[in-house]
Amino acid sequence: MILKRLLDYLLGYCIIKVAGPRKERFINFIINEKIPLWDIVQKGEDELWVKVYVSDIGKLRHIARKSRCSFKIKAKRGFPFLALRAEKRKGLVVGIFLFMIVLFSLSSFIWFVDIHSSEPLVLLSEETILREAARLGLKPGALKSRIHIDNIEQKLTVSLPQLTFVGIEIQGTLVKIEVAEKKVIPEEIKEKPAHLIAAKDGVIEEILVLAGESRVKVGDTVQRGQLLISGLAPQKVVDRKTGEFIEQGPPKVLEAKGIVRARVWYETVSEAPIIERGKRLTGAKREQWSILLGNKKIVLKGPRLSPYADYEEKRQTRTIEWRNLNVPVEVIQTIFYELKPYQRNWGQEGAIKNAKDLALKILETKMPKEARILDQKVDVISQSGNVIKVRVWIETLEDIGEKQYFQPETD
What we know:
Elements: H1 2-11, E1 13-19, H2 23-32, E2 37-43, E3 47-53, H3 60-67, E4 70-77, H4 79-88, H5 90-106, E5 112-116, H6 126-135, H7 149-159, E6 163-171, E7 174-181, E8 194-198, E9 202-211, E10 213-214, E11 221-222, E12 227-230, E13 232-233, E14 236-238, E15 245-247, E16 252-253, E17 257-273, E18 275-293, E19 296-301, E20 311-322, E21 325-345, H8 347-364, E22 372-384, E23 387-399, E24 401-405
Parallel strand pairs: 5-7
Antiparallel strand pairs: 1-3, 1-4, 2-3, 6-7, 8-12, 8-24, 9-11, 9-17, 10-12, 13-16, 14-15, 17-23, 18-19, 18-21, 20-21, 22-23
Helix pairs in contact: 2-3
């Protein structure tokens, strides 16, 4: 099938419209003359559309007279017509040919160098790695044929000992440098004097003191900033007479440690529509590649404008550098995503659930990950037209302690 289409394009063909009362006879005469024809389409009662080779158009004239029909060429397709138009526009053809030569030449160079790492870089910056790679010859404007990947990878790991892995991959005019840094084990942090205070309001449920002195008990209601475990612990000794512990000397200064779990309440208000209307992606998209020369945009591939009535677009722009010189040329990739309007009736119960789910997502951003939800409550506040508004309360059990460092007093 593909070879047939290629042959049709190379030989050239016409799409003709046949009109008249004896269209079938016209077709039969063509078949009897062994003239190739294909894609016969009936359009209305008086028209047939047929494809025939351009070399057979002259043979159809006497057949049309013989069958008392008429035909008209509606479109011309194929290489012969393209060559004819090119002959009339030699300047344009030469310009396209030169542009392709320049484009092919530019594709022999490296224009972009990107750094990738699976984890954030700590010991080195991207600029440092790019600068060292440029010193070794891997930089925008370098010929791809002169880049020896294995050699540069080895030299980068030697010149930048902070790296344990360097992988280089060339993708067209883009070079991706994948790096991995050595793991740095931080020095042990010395203990600093600190209290443990309440990070938020709550009611104490559990207390476990690991270091310091507790200043609250189970069942106490605490407010944000209230002292929970003090970093000033009194030094106690046993009284020989009574056998009880008594304080002796100044309090010991230390870093308070412990777990203080409390019941905490969160509240928020959210709303959701009963009938949801909006626009969403259909999955259809079109890609456009263009270059920007000064203020002039030239589309190289894809549609000039978005083919969709409703759409959103994402654009990525890259500048071209030539041997440390900024060339006033930008390569732009634009992707048009089709949007279609939609409408969905959730009903009252569905709208309440959506508003509740939205409220829970909002509250989850305020809660620590280890918090355990004990209870939740939803109240419908109001319904105004298409919108339902709800209030959501959540009760959690979580550790509310946070460090508050202090400078001990000196005599």
